[in-house]
Write a structure and sequence with these properties.
Number of strands: 0
Structural class: mainly alpha
CATH superfamily of the domain at 32-153: Tetratricopeptide repeat domain
Distance between the termini: 85 Å
Shape: globular
Oligomer: single chain
CATH class of the domain at 32-153: Mainly Alpha
Radius of gyration: 21 Å
Order of helices and strands: HHHHHHHHHHHH
C-alpha cells in the first residue's frame, strides 16, 4: 500500500515538474519575443518545449509566430535569401495549421495561420497567390466569430481589402476577389484600433488607407497620435519614422 501511495506521489510530482518546465519555456519564449525581441531565442525555447509536448496548442502557435518574426527580418537580396525566407513562412503556416487542428475552437490559431498565409501571398505576389488570399479572409472571419475582440484579425482583414483594392474591381471580379472594397478596409482598420488603440502599425496602415481615400484630415489625425504611443513591436521605431515622413508629406 505504501509503495502504491509513493508511486502516485512521485507521478504527481513528475507531472507537476513537467508542466512547470513547459510553462517556464513558454514564458521565456514570450519574454524574448515581446520584450527583448530576440526572435531566434524565442523560437529555440518553444522548440525545446515542443520536444516535451508535441501537440500543445500554446507551443504550436508560438512556433508559428517565431518563424514569421524571424522571416520578416531575413535578408532577401539573393535567390538563396528569398528561398530561405519563403521556407520560414511555410514553416510558420505548417505550425499554425497544427495549432488550428490541436484547438479548432481558439481564435489565435486562425490568426496565426492567416498571418503566415498572408506572408506567403505577399512574398509570391498577391495576384499569384489568390488561394492564399482567400484563405486569409476565411481564417480571419473564423477568428472573429470565435473572438470578436481579436484586434489582429480585424487588422489583417483591413489590410487584405486595401491590398486587393490596388487593382480595379473589374480585374478582381473574375478571380473571385470582387468582395474587396475600401469601405470594408477602413471599417476593419477602425475596429482594430478600437480594440488595440496603442498599437502603432494599426494606426499607420489605417492612415495610409484614409489617405488613399482622400480623407487627409483623418490620416493626419492618426499619424499625429503615433508619436506619443509606447513601443510594443520590434519594428515600431521604423513605423514611427514612416508615420513622421508621411505626415510631413501630407502637410506640404
Amino acid at each position: 500500500m505504501k509503495q502504491a501511495v509513493l508511486f502516485i506521489v512521485l507521478l504527481l510530482c513528475s507531472t507537476s515538474l513537467y508542466s512547470q518546465s513547459v510553462q517556464d519555456l513558454i514564458s521565456e519564449a514570450d519574454n524574448y519575443s515581446t520584450v527583448t525581441y530576440e526572435n531566434q531565442k524565442a523560437l529555440d525555447k518553444v522548440h525545446q518545449a515542443e520536444k516535451m509536448d508535441l501537440n500543445n496548442f500554446n507551443i504550436l502557435w508560438r512556433i508559428s509566430r517565431g518563424y514569421v518574426d524571424i522571416g520578416e527580418h531575413l535578408p532577401n537580396k539573393t535567390d538563396a535569401d528569398k528561398e530561405k525566407q519563403l521556407e520560414y513562412y511555410q514553416k510558420a503556416f505548417d505550425y499554425a495549421d497544427k495549432a488550428v487542428n490541436a484547438k479548432p475552437d481558439s481564435s489565435i490559431g486562425y490568426v496565426r495561420r492567416a498571418i503566415a498565409n498572408g506572408r506567403v501571398a505577399l512574398f509570391k505576389g498577391v495576384w499569384s497567390a489568390i488561394d492564399f488570399v482567400k484563405q486569409v479572409k476565411t481564417d480571419c472571419e473564423k477568428a472573429i466569430a470565435l473572438d470578436p475582440k481579436n484586434g489582429a484579425a480585424y487588422y489583417i482583414l483591413g489590410r487584405t481589402h486595401a491590398k486587393l483594392c490596388e487593382k480595379s474591381k473589374m480585374i478582381r471580379w473574375p478571380l473571385g476577389l470582387g468582395w474587396a472594397n475600401m469601405d470594408e478596409s477602413l471599417k476593419y482598420y477602425d475596429k482594430s484600433i478600437e480594440l488595440r488603440p496603442t498599437f502603432i502599425l494599426y494606426r499607420l496602415d489605417a492612415a495610409r488607407a484614409y489617405n488613399e481615400e482622400d480623407n487627409t484630415d483623418k490620416a493626419k489625425e492618426l499619424l499625429i497620435s503615433i508619436a506619443a504611443l509606447p513601443k510594443q513591436d520590434e519594428d515600431d521605431d521604423q513605423y514611427r519614422k514612416e508615420a513622421k515622413e508621411l505626415l510631413e508629406k501630407l502637410n506640404k
